[in-house]
Structure formats: C-alpha cells, structure tokens
Amino acid sequence: MSLRLVVLMCLLPLSLSVRAGDNDWLSLIWHNDLLIGKDGGGYTNGLFLSWYTFADEVREDFAPPWLTRPLARWLINSEDTTKLELGVHTLGQMMVTPEDVSKLEREPGDAPYAGLLYWRSGYFSYTDERVDSVAVTVGVVGPLAGAERAQKWVHEITGSTEPRGWDNQISNEPIGQIERARMWRFASGSGVRQADLLTQISGSLGNVESAARLTMVVRYGTDLRRSVIAASQLSGRVSNPMAIDRGWNVYLGVGADYVHNQIFISGSRLRSGPRTELKHEQYWLFAGGAYAWENFSATVGFSASSSLDKYSSARQGFGSVILAWRL
Known about the structure:
Blueprint: H1 3-16, E1 24-32, E2 42-55, H2 69-75, E3 84-97, E4 114-126, E5 130-141, H3 147-158, E6 173-188, E7 193-206, E8 209-222, H4 228-231, E9 234-235, E10 238-239, E11 248-262, H5 263-266, E12 281-292, E13 296-305, E14 316-326
Antiparallel strand pairs: 1-2, 1-14, 2-3, 3-4, 4-5, 5-6, 6-7, 7-8, 8-11, 9-10, 11-12, 12-13, 13-14
C-alpha cells in the first residue's frame, strides 16, 4: 500500500472531530481473497477506515455528515421523535482484477484491472424496528487510486503471485454515487440470547454503480437490539455486522442485486478502455461471527457471490476482518 494512503487513513480521525464522543467508534475493515486461498479474479481486495458518531439519545442538534446534508432531511422523516441517529465517514480503497494476475495481457472478456479510492459519508436514522439511511460517495477510479501499488505490496509480503497486468487498468475518472436504503428488524425471543431477521431494500445511482438490491440477514447472539445499527452497514458485497458492548453474534446473510452499470466491469463512460460485459443479475452469500468487549469489537466473515461478468465461470469470494475501537 502506498505511504500516502496509510498517512491519509491515520489522519482521518483528526480531520473529522477535535474531540471524540463517548459513543464514537473507529473501525478498520479488510477484505481479501487471499484470506480464503484465492488469488485474483473479480473483487480481490478492499480496505476501509470508518469513523462512526452515534447519538445514544434523541438530539435535535445532531448534524448529518456534510456530504449527506442536502439529502438527509428530505429522505428521512425528521419528525419521528423516537429515532436515534448515526453518522459514518469512510475512506476506502477497492480493486478488481482478472482471473490470472500473472499475465501481462488479460484474456478477452475477463474483468479489467481497476482500482477505486473514495470518501463515503453516510447518515442513519434508526429505531428498534427500522433503519433508514442515505449515503454519498465521491472519489476516483484509475491509477490515482493507488491500487496497483497496494496489490503489489500485499502480494510481496505474502509471497503471492506478482500482478503484472496493471498497465491495462481503467483510466483515471472521477466517480460519484448516491445510495438510499431501508432496513426492518424482526426479533424473536426476550431472553439474553435472541435471534432476529434483518431485511433491507436499497438502491444506488452513479457512475461507479447503479443498482437495486434486496438483502436478508439472520443473527443469533446477545444484545442484538443495540447492535442493529452496526448490522445495517450493508452495501452490496460490503457487510459490517459488528457487535458492541460485550455482545456477540453469529450471522448468515443472502442478497440479490440487479446492477445496471458498474465501472469495475463496464469500464469508463468518458473514454474507451478495458471492459467486459456486465452480468446484471447477481447473487451473494455472507456469514461470520462477531464478539465485542467494552471498548473493542472483532468480526471475522466470508462472502461469496455469482460472477460479476458474463464470461467468468468462477464464483467471487473473499474473507473479511473487521476491528473496531470505541474512542
């Protein structure tokens, strides 16, 4: 990974707040196919640093993240006096590669090399039974995202195959995306240990991706009500069902997407370049477990999905590790 990205991630908390609140959290999320013994092919790596600001009581002065402010009050019922709120700021890097990263030239029809560096602001309004959210993402796809250096660095320290085809990656292009989601929670049982079902419908619009999706998650564990807002962090293949406040849970989720466009596969719309034919109907499965101490949470998970493009026969899969700290 480039030194500039590491420094930027370390400075993220300082850029967001002078003083952390009692319910502010910082999380580091790593997705990689090496965690499950794969090496290349589709979505292969993601690194995300997020700052969460919780309102643990109803507050009229809670300010949504600045990117979401033009949309938050319009999309979410501000007259609901029972809701609590959450603001999330995320700095992330993602990459997609062809199936065989050892080749200088990708096979015809295979996924192109592509890297994405972005800033995402999300605003969540929630009660015990429902979570509404809106998010805005801005960033850049292409060499400026630093994905080539990041992948070569990870492969060097892990002794993996040297990726050789990054000269063919998607060119630099600014990206933007708006997301809107609603999730419902259905709980079973009233004891210390409970089960619940989370159902979410969401949509996104932008040049990085435009899609509609349905996601369902079953959880079993303790303190599920308090961690429902953390479990609502579902965005395509990125799922962050953390536990908090000495709780734990195991989870199993499924999702179905209709993807109209995705820059990783469809390529740039501003200029010609590497691309392949997008598979519009996509399905995915994820599972894992989370455990939380008083000020620390750890989650380990696995995700698998159908192919991103019409010519790849391999299913996509990656492992995930999520570490979170109360500030």
